[in-house]
Amino acid sequence: MDKELMQILACPACRGELEPLAESDPVRPDPAGLACPACALVYPVRDHIPVLLREEAVPRLEWNAGKRCARPEKRKP
Ligand SMILES: [Zn+2]
Fold first, then answer.
1. DSSP of 52-72, one letter per residue?
2. How far is the CA of 14 from the centre of ligand 1 (A)?
3. CATH of 3-64, one of 3.40.50.2300, 1.20.120.420, 2.20.25.10, 2.60.40.650
């Protein structure tokens, strides 16, 4: 993601700076999420578009545990 875009992005809850979280997958060089250290929330990046919505944010601890969606994930049958 380009640096200029990163500079205008801010946490919608506290207007704080966001920290990009790298995905380990080298095929997808974009950050997988943007973390707000103050709120301990991660905003997901979907199709190169940061989803800066409070209701879409994943708590940092859950993000670290592998969760990528704020809504309950569908279980496989
Ligand atoms: Zn914040």
1. --GGG-EEHHHHHTT---SSP
2. 4
3. 2.20.25.10
pTM, to two decimals: 0.77
C-alpha distance across the termini of the chain, in Å: 36
Q: How far is the CA of 46 from the centre of ligand 1 (A)?
A: 19
Give the Å distance between the CA of 13 and the centre of ligand 1: 5
Task: Choose among 7, 74, 14, 24: nearest CA to 50.
Answer: 7
Kindly report, residue by residue over 33-60, the tens digit of the pLDDT. Answer: 999 999 999 999 988 888 999 999 999 9
Q: How far is the CA of 66 from the centre of ligand 1 (A)?
A: 20
